[in-house]
Design brief:
With 276 residues, the chain is of the alpha+beta class. It contains eight helices and 14 strands. The strands form two sheets. Strands 6, 7, 8, 9, 10, 11, 12, 13 and 14 form a nine-stranded mixed β-sheet that branches. The chain has a five-stranded antiparallel β-sheet with strand order 2-1-5-4-3. The radius of gyration is 19 Å and the shape is globular. The chain starts with a strand and ends with a helix.
């Protein structure tokens, strides 16, 4: 793993022991797909981080400095995954941020994930529920303990992902992806105004298709005509099975994947398979 750590504009060797990201999860992060030396969705990622920083009243790092380091990390012209993690910075002990000295940010590069199951993902329902907290809803903040617990509910290769609900029983997402369900001729995705993450790929699908944000129940998802998961690293992935419910290949899923591939060449299926 290639990593660079900064305190504001100064590069440092290690994360300070009093960093609030370590102590309290007081931070944000973006996980970005790199393609041929660039990050095609960087504008979307930066806009989401900027919105999160505004909502949390947290300082952003200097964008030109972030971009220059990003380009240096991708100087080989290759593909991979970049993670930009931002914390409020170091400060005194306790929850008050009055003594914070400035933001800490970390940029890391990772290999692409392995290719998905060829015939579609196999999903299960998770028992872990997501707490409702509108102040944090939509943010990709650094406290992911609920997702860690949900992902820990299975081991092995029987399941590729798990779907999570909120404490009221409404479907929210997968542990590391957003969900879209096709009902009739329109895609729907769970609202993220009470909990969950407003994903970058989710945003693209909403704009490209006119999909509706809706409150979805377990029955709504299980009775859908097709289901897909999406995130900014793996693109749009069809779901073949959810517990005992199975879906055959659906032309609307293929069409949606084709539209994403045309807009973002990193998600061309042939390229993805060759590079994974």
């Amino acid at each position: 793993m290639n990593a660079r750590i900064f305190a504001g504009a100064r590069r440092i060797e290690a994360i300070p022991a009093n960093d609030r990201g370590l102590a309290y999860g007081d931070g944000l992060f973006e996980t970005m797909r790199a393609h041929r030396g660039g990050v095609p969705w960087f504008e979307r990622h930066w806009a989401r981080m900027a919105d999160g920083a505004r909502r949390l009243r947290m300082a952003l790092p200097d964008r030109p400095l972030v971009e220059s380091n990003l380009h240096e990390m991708l100087a080989d012209g290759g593909d991979g995954v970049l993670k930009l993690l931002l914390t409020r910075g170091g400060g005194g002990r306790g929850y008050s941020a009055a003594a914070v000295t400035g933001p800490t940010w970390i940029l890391t590069r990772h290999p692409l994930p392995p290719p998905p199951r060829a015939n579609g993902l196999h999903l299960r329902w998770c028992d872990t529920r997501l707490a409702v907290q509108p102040l944090l809803a939509g943010l990709k903040h650094c406290n992911r303990l609920e997702q860690v617990l949900a992902r820990g509910e299975w081991v092995g290769d029987d399941w590729d992902e798990g779907l999570v609900r909120d404490t009221d029983g409404n479907v929210v997402s997968a542990t590391s992806a957003n969900l879209f369900a096709l009902r009739g001729d329109r895609w729907q995705t769970p609202r993220v105004d009470r909990c969950g993450v407003a994903g970058v790929c989710r945003g693209w699908v909403l704009e490209a298709t006119g999909a509706a944000e809706a409150t979805l129940s377990v029955n709504d998802v299980e009775r859908a005509d097709a289901v897909v998961l999406c995130n900014a690293v793996r693109g749009i992935l069809p779901v073949a099975r959810l517990g005992d419910r199975a879906w055959p290949a659906h032309p609307a899923v293929h069409e949606l994947q084709g539209r994403l591939s045309a807009a973002h060449p990193a998600f061309n299926p042939t390229i993805t398979e060759d590079l994974a």
